[in-house]
Amino acid sequence: MKILIAQLLNQLVLSQCVIAQYRYQIIQIFILRSMSVSKVQKLFFRFSYYKNLDLTSPYPSFQARDMTTTHTMHYITKPPCDPKIMTFGAFHTDHMLEIDWTEKMGWSRPQIIPFKSFSIHPFAACLHYAIECFEGAKAYKGPNKTIRTFRLDCNMYRMKQSAKRLSLPDFDGAELQKCIEGLLKVDQDWIPDRPGFSCYIRPTIIATEEALGVRASSRAKLFVVLCPVGPYFPSGLKPVRVFCNTTTIRSAPGGVGGYKVAGNYAPTVMPLKEVQQIGFHQNLWMLPDGLVQEMGVCNLFFFWKNKQGERELVTPQLDGTILPGIVRDSLLELTRDMKQFKVIEKKVYIQEVIEAISEGRMIEMFGSGTAVSIQPIEAIGYNDKIYEVKYDPKLNAGELSHQLFDMITEIQTGNKPHKWINVV
């Protein structure tokens, strides 16, 4: 039986998207077949979620070569490159990308048009049933003023998976990437060239069928908007205090926690407001049994010594309840290439975390995400007690998280050539 399973695994590795999408379910089947948990984890988490991306579509898709551009007649005054002014989501660029879809006609031609507000029917499915998904990526201007995107192909892949989960129309991810690059060229003057600044890219698909009722929408709109943003930490990294939420969960097994869909975010607003009122910055999301998931909208990393004294960088495994973060994936590859400590994806329970802190084995904790890149953690609140987490006050972070922040930044800004960067 084990030989048969191994042969099946080798065949499945050829289809990364199948494993990426159904990895958790397949793991459960193999465990039931008496394979050890550790062996199954080693087999399934030895490759990236984003390896060998398939961005193609079996259905007719829009094509970037058909894209038209209408330039605005009313250019917006650009804000100054001041981190106190150019905050996240505060400003938009002059243009946007828009592509419509209907069940009868398929995709329309992509259009770059002047930024505008939408006129939308009050019955539109996105307004009532949250049938919408989105992405978040960034573009940068490097030392020679060239435009660079960071792993945008991964965002296209993840968006295709989210759209499929909501029965929204499929598309060719490579063609959408080309369209986005065209939009970046049109609005290239909006992309800041100062260190720490970037242009946030927000692709979105919304269901626009003009009828009430929970069902697959017969109409949809794909649009992309751009937002110039300053550094998340204007004066350097800043650690946060997180609250271990034992009464509210972000996502459940079998749900949509592993997809970037709108319905995952609205329910987190009230719990965030509540913990901020008691002195914390974010929630640490867990399941009722203490299984750790995410922090706010970030993936989590624990750098500790195990009970054998070995250093390990541990992050919760992708079990379907956790978003497969692109920065998360990047950090896993960078740290594995270091070959300085074990890098592990596995189930992590809050009891293990508290034990590691209490026994002095926790070296540092941090989160990761597109907006923040790296987010150091200085303390966690759990069961009416505060547990302080080590970090270097001079760095406002742990040594590893500070090193990784510098590494990611060097790659994103073009100071260090890397396969993850695409020059537009």
Automatic annotation (TrEMBL):
Catalysed transformations (reactions): L-isoleucine + 2-oxoglutarate = (S)-3-methyl-2-oxopentanoate + L-glutamate; L-valine + 2-oxoglutarate = 3-methyl-2-oxobutanoate + L-glutamate; L-leucine + 2-oxoglutarate = 4-methyl-2-oxopentanoate + L-glutamate
Cofactor(s) the protein needs: pyridoxal 5'-phosphate
Domain of life: Eukaryota
EC number in record: 2.6.1.42
PROSITE patterns given in the database record: AA_TRANSFER_CLASS_4 (PS00770)
Xref: SUPFAM superfamilies: D-aminoacid aminotransferase-like PLP-dependent enzymes (SSF56752)
GO molecular function, one term: L-leucine-2-oxoglutarate transaminase activity
Keywords: Amino-acid biosynthesis, Aminotransferase, Branched-chain amino acid biosynthesis, Pyridoxal phosphate, Signal, Transferase
GO biological process, one term: branched-chain amino acid biosynthetic process
Signal peptide start and end residues: 1-20
Residues annotated with N6-(pyridoxal phosphate)lysine modification: K260
EC top class named in words: transferase
Family indicated by similarity: Belongs to the class-IV pyridoxal-phosphate-dependent aminotransferase family.
Stated name of the protein: Branched-chain-amino-acid aminotransferase
Organism: Paramecium tetraurelia
Organism lineage string: Eukaryota, Sar, Alveolata, Ciliophora, Intramacronucleata
